[in-house]
């Protein structure tokens, strides 16, 4: 049976991890996978996470199963963090293994409810979005998103393409910190998108993997809150990997907003999907998040550290934009300072990306997406000079 298997294409982001690891050069720079690193290159365990883990080790008396949906306290805490007050009677939710698990369950829920629905994705988007949609055999369409010339959002193209969305189609939107481009809609533009899609009768699927990495914890949820208030049905796939720094704990949530009358049935379907795919979701990371969000002192410390992380990335963005001005004698990379989140797509050719890797030991995704947090004050000028050297 297994003889019939064909080799699978490697994930372009994860492939870079192995290539970087196997590169013997000591001066190499990793700007690949979206993992936060501090100035020393470490992905730290956040202080509040450590404190919660210590307390959990002392207090936890059982490891028995939680519930198919995970701990309801986790769902309540996450709905509160993402949406604020007032959604409890509309929000069905399940804990999932990371943000990817939430995306997968969201797509499965769409497939279960509306097998013929088309899922719209931004061009470009995180490569795993189309990969999972294709794997599930769902219909897919793209809407324009990125303007290669300005490295900003192609808003006219986006609106023109979303005007073709049909009632009942699902539209995958990056709630903040667009991956891979780093270019984001303004709140006014979001309002226009919301109006257009609500008039069409579309169902938004919000991918919220970087809340707190862009303009702030509440600011990064603003678009999602706008959407939540404007549509009768909304799916939100959120990750705690980045903002809590608990990547390997696989902590995420799928929230499905519906009417209070439909909530029990929707919740039952979410539970069913968890049962089919992995039964009980992982609990450790979810429990830490619940403890942190439910404890004023831990929450304050976590928010303070998250803010340091965000400010560090903003500082690196400004420094990089300044260095690009020096290295290229132009302002064409100023967009790096206005992009938000971990990523910026620089607009280099694949040949330039390959030269950066081969000649300079600088690793970025083939579409020239860089992880800003892979840089530090010393490597920023090295990157800018190397890009100028390959004609960028
Ligand atoms: C990324 O885009 O680099 C992250 O979301 C990590 C991943 O799983 O691809």
UniProtKB/TrEMBL annotation:
Any single Gene Ontology cellular-component annotation: cytosol
Give the GO molecular function terms: identical protein binding; L-aspartate:2-oxoglutarate aminotransferase activity; L-tyrosine-2-oxoglutarate transaminase activity; pyridoxal phosphate binding
Q: Which GO terms describe its biological process?
A: L-phenylalanine biosynthetic process from chorismate via phenylpyruvate
Q: What's the cofactor?
A: pyridoxal 5'-phosphate
Which intervals of the chain form a coiled coil? Answer: 299-326
Q: Which CDD domains match?
A: AAT_like
Q: Where is the Aminotransferase class I/classII large domain?
A: 27-387
Q: Which InterPro entries match?
A: Aminotransferase_I/II_large, Asp_trans, PyrdxlP-dep_Trfase, PyrdxlP-dep_Trfase_major, PyrdxlP-dep_Trfase_small
Keywords for the protein's UniProt record, in alphabetical order: Aminotransferase, Coiled coil, Pyridoxal phosphate, Transferase
Its family? Belongs to the class-I pyridoxal-phosphate-dependent aminotransferase family.
Q: What is said about its interaction partners and assembly?
A: Homodimer.
According to UniProt, the name of this protein is: Aspartate/tyrosine/aromatic aminotransferase
Q: What organism does this protein naturally occur in?
A: Neotabrizicola shimadae
């Amino acid at each position: 049976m297994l003889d019939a298997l064909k080799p699978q294409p490697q994930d372009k982001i994860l492939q870079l991890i192995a290539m970087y690891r196997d590169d013997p050069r000591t001066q190499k720079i990793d700007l690949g996978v979206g993992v936060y690193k501090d100035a020393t290159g470490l992905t730290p365990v956040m202080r509040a996470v450590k404190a919660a883990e210590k307390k959990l080790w002392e207090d936890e008396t059982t490891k028995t199963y939680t519930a198919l949906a995970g701990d309801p306290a986790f769902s309540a805490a996450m709905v509160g963090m993402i949406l604020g007050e007032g959604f409890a009677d509309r929000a069905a939710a399940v804990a999932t293994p990371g943000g990817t698990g939430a995306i997968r369950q969201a797509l499965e829920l769409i497939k279960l409810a509306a097998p013929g629905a088309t899922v719209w994705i931004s061009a470009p988007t995180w490569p795993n979005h189309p990969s999972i949609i294709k794997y599930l055999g769902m219909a897919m369409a793209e809407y324009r998103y990125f303007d290669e010339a300005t490295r900003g959002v192609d808003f006219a193209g986006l609106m023109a393409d979303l005007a073709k969305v049909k009632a009942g189609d699902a539209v995958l939107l990056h709630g903040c910190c667009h991956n891979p481009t780093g270019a984001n809609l303004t709140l006014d533009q979001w309002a226009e998108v919301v109006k257009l899609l609500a008039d069409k009768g579309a169902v938004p699927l919000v991918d919220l993997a970087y809340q707190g990495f862009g303009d702030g914890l509440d600011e990064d949820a603003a678009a999602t809150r706008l959407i939540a208030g404007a549509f009768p049905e909304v799916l939100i796939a959120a990750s705690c990997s980045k903002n809590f720094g608990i990547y390997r704990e696989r902590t995420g949530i799928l929230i499905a907003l519906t009417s209070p009358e439909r909530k029990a049935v929707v919740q039952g379907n979410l539970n069913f999907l968890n049962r089919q795919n992995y039964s009980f979701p992982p609990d450790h990371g979810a429990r830490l998040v619940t403890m942190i969000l439910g404890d004023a002192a831990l929450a304050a410390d976590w928010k303070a550290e998250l803010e340091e992380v965000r400010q560090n990335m903003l500082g690196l963005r400004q420094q990089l934009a300044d260095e690009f001005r020096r290295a290229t004698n132009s302002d064409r990379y100023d967009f790096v300072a206005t992009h938000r989140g971990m990523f910026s797509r620089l607009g280099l050719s694949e040949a330039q990306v390959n030269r950066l890797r081969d000649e300079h030991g600088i690793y970025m995704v083939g579409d020239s997406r860089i992880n800003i947090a892979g840089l530090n004050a010393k490597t920023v000028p090295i990157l800018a000079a190397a890009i100028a050297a390959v004609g960028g």
